[in-house]
Design brief:
By secondary structure, this protein is mainly alpha-helical. 57% of the residues lie in helices and 0% in strands. Helix 12 (341-360) runs antiparallel to helix 14 (383-406).
Length: 419
């Protein structure tokens, strides 16, 4: 199909509409600042430890744990990079010949991409935590910036008619959030019909809409693939900086354990409080009514349950450690070396229980968020409240005995949180 040619004045109108549009279905958070409770650069946290905090920590166990955590992040970044490349190819093939079959292949590719990202996102360390998580936000901005579907539609119009179009720098209009919207949304748009470019949108065929979106979609998936490659390279370089793991002294090990443990409070402040808590109606400051499903993560694809499962699985893997012997160990082995086998076993059991219950859940979080209910207090038997409770049993131990036994501190973002 030949591209529709419109005047530069019309392009300007579209751009102005993008800036003034306030009827988008979901609000956009402050794009320059992480949400309260989400971790920022670890350099802003107090990762120092006192001399007596190293007492009783087995050096070889600590070295093996650091090695396991870093190597796990490198492996996850490599997996994400490979799937990013594969997904970009899915997009190219769909745009060459849009069909139901090529659409389903593209959607399956996105699901695999999302799973790998969500796994990696739960292992935040090194390059992913540098410069206020700059690389992380290039991939996925939720919950700091909610995907702005109308503005994405407006960018589609601009990219369709302008051969010199360049992607916006706005996090709410790019990354995995924008890809999800374009891959899983049908013919409909999210803007007012009276806005420039949309008066005749509904008269267009599905094929015409698909090709229009492909102009933007190909740019997004290409950028994501480039960012993923950059991330993998930086993670690999980060691992090489450690050199001989056995040369890490006890103070370095303790400080690194503190730095890495800070990032794992993502499980508490984002997974529990934002991903599940928002769906359960526990965030009245963000959504005054119960079950605010329009703000649930990934409402277009309804992949939020799978994303949380990937987050929990990653935490379980780095906590438990590999099954292949002595070279690498997880936090489980550190707790075991300190005589806290009961705590270590309980945390693994609770993690596996939370994962199992999510996998057996027959509805998406988007659907669960539509249920009416109270505030997950005693007696609230909604499924979403059970999932919230499952994760809370893990984070209660994380914020309590785990820190106490390993002589670690909670990050500032999690201090004072009694939930």
């Amino acid at each position: 199909m030949k591209k529709t040619i419109i005047s530069m004045a019309c392009i300007a109108l579209i751009s102005n509409a993008c800036q003034s549009e306030d009827s988008d279905k979901t609000p956009v958070a402050n794009e320059e600042r992480p949400v309260p409770g989400e971790l920022t650069d670890t350099n802003s946290e107090d990762t120092s430890t006192s001399t007596d905090s190293t007492e009783g920590l087995a050096l070889n166990e600590g070295q093996a744990t650091i090695k396991h955590l870093v190597h796990s992040a490198v492996k996850a970044s490599s997996s994400f990079q490979l799937q990013s490349k594969a997904f970009h190819q899915n997009v190219i093939e769909f745009c060459q010949a849009p069909s139901q079959q090529s659409r389903e292949m593209m959607q399956a590719g996105f699901k695999a991409l999302n799973q790998r990202w969500q796994y990696l996102d739960a292992i935040k360390l090194g390059p992913l935590m540098e410069r206020q998580q700059e690389l992380r936000y290039q991939v996925y901005a939720w919950p700091s910036a909610v995907t702005s579907s109308c503005r994405i539609d407006l960018e589609v119009l601009k990219s369709e008619v302008s051969p010199d179009y360049q992607l916006s720098s706005k996090m709410s209009q790019k990354g995995l959030g924008a890809l999800e919207y374009l891959v899983f949304t049908g013919k409909e748009h999210s803007c007012r019909a009276s806005m420039t470019g949309f008066a005749t949108w509904n008269d267009r065929s599905q094929n015409s809409v698909d090709l229009a979106r492909c102009s933007y979609l190909k740019l997004l998936s290409s950028e994501n693939s480039s960012v993923a490659m950059n991330l993998e390279q930086r993670m690999t370089s980060y691992e090489k900086q450690f050199g001989d793991w056995s040369k890490l002294d006890i103070t370095s090990v303790q400080n690194l354990l503190q730095e890495f443990s800070n990032s794992y409070f993502f499980l508490d402040t984002v997974v529990k409080d934002r991903k599940i808590g928002l769906a359960a109606g526990l965030k009245p400051e963000l959504c005054p009514r119960k079950g605010c499903n329009t703000l649930v993560e990934q409402s277009h694809s309804e992949l939020s349950k799978d994303s949380i499962t990937a987050n929990l699985q990653a935490f379980n893997d780095i906590f438990s450690g590999p099954d292949n012997g002595e070279a690498q160990k997880g936090f489980y082995h550190l707790l075991e070396s300190k005589g806290a086998i009961a705590l270590a076993s309980r945390m693994v059991l609770n993690l596996e229980n939370a994962i199992s219950n999510l996998k057996s859940e027959g509805r998406s979080l988007f659907e669960l968020a539509e249920e009416s209910g109270s505030d997950c207090s005693a007696g609230d038997d909604r499924s979403i409240c059970q999932h919230y409770s499952d994760v809370k049993t893990v984070t209660d131990d994380l914020k309590g005995e785990f820190l106490e036994i390993l002589k670690l501190k909670a990050p500032k973002s999690a201090q004072g949180d009694s939930d």
